[in-house]
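Q: How would the C-alpha cells look for this protein?
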Amino acid sequence: MESIGSFFEELAKRSTRLNNQVRTPEQQLDKMLQSSTYLQEFQRKHPDVTRDDMLRSLSMIYTAVKEQYCCQKCTALADCPNLVKGHATVLNVANRQVVSAISSCAKFQAHEEMLRTQRLMRSYYVAEQTMHADFDGKLEVAAGNQEAVALALRFCNDFTLGKKPKGLYVHGPFGVGKSFLMGAVARELSKHNVQSLMVYVPDFVREIKESIADQSYSGKLAFLKEVPVLILDDIGAESLTPWIRDEILGVILHHRSSKQMPTLYTSNYSLEELEEHLSISNGNRIETTKAMRIMERIRHYVEVCEIEGVNRRLHA
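A: Here is the predicted structure in C-alpha cell form.
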C-alpha cells in the first residue's frame, strides 16, 4: 500500500506532469481513504457522509489530511509546516456537508500555557530554577519548613478565593529554601490567573541607583506598587541608602499597605534585625524613627515564619 507521505510527494510534483498522468478526483479520494488514518476515522464517525459529499469537498479534505499527517510527524512547534503554525485543519459535518475548521495542537497549547505563566510570573534578577519551583512535587517539605509551606499554601488559597490575606515574612539562614518557597507561591498563583512579581532586592536596588540620572526608575516603581502580589526576595541584603529606604521602599510599601495589596518577603534577618538594618544611614548615623516607619508597613501586614535547616547549596 502506498503511504500517505508518498501520495503527497506525488501530488506536489503533479504540475510538472502531463494531464493524463494526474490522478482524477476519484483516484485522489481513494488514495487518501486508503492511506490516511485521520480520514478513515472521520468516515467511521460520520457514516452518513457519502462519496459525493467528499468529492464536493475534496480540496478541504486534502488540506486536512495533509496537515494532520504533518502533525503526526511533528517533533517541535518551531518546525510546523502547516499554514497556521501550531494549528491543523479538522473536518466536521454540518447540515449534511463536510466543513472544516482550524484547531490548535497540543504543542501550541503547551507553548501558550508557558507564555501565559511567564506573563503572570514576572521576576527581576531571580534565578530561573527558583521560578520553576512548584508545590506539586518539586518543593521538598521537611521538619524545618512545614509551617512555612502551610502558611504559603493558605495564602495562595485565600488570595485566589478573593480574600485579603496578610503577606508572608519568611526568614532564616542561607540556603534553606526561602526563595524556592516564594517561587512555588508565584507558580501556584499563576495557575489561578493571579499575576505576581518576584524581585531579588539587592540587584533591583543597584538597578534603581543606576537609573536615577534618567529617571527611568519611575516606571519600575509603578509596577511594584500595582502588581497584585509582590515578593521581595532577600530584603536586608541590599546596599541601603536613605533615599532607597525612604523614597523607594517606603513609597512602595506605603502604597501597597494602604491598598491592602499583599507583599511577601524573604530575609536572613528577623523583623527586629531588619529594623536595625534599616535604621543605619549615611555616616553610620542611626535613624530609628525612619526605620520604624518602614517596619510599621511590614510588621502589621505579614505572617512571620522562620525556616530552619542546613544550607542546601552546600550539599547540592
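The radius of gyration is 30 Å.

Residues 242-258 form the longest helix (17 residues).

Upvote if useful.
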